Amino acid sequence: MKNPWTKKNPFMSMWLRGANAVAGSARGHASAAAKRQASTAVKQGNKQIADFWTAAFTPPKPARKKRR
Length: 68
What we know:
The protein has one helix at 10-57.
């Protein structure tokens, strides 16, 4: 006699398939957001470095004269 507890449950299979699809979609959205944030942080860091070094090698602007 076969054990009824080891028999496949089609409803459980459908539910797990749907839950796995939702989890995969959420994981994809989360990883895409993390990549966007990392890319933005790297771009801002590079811009700050470039601004620092360009400011270091350019002479300061002359002070404006006050008008009377």
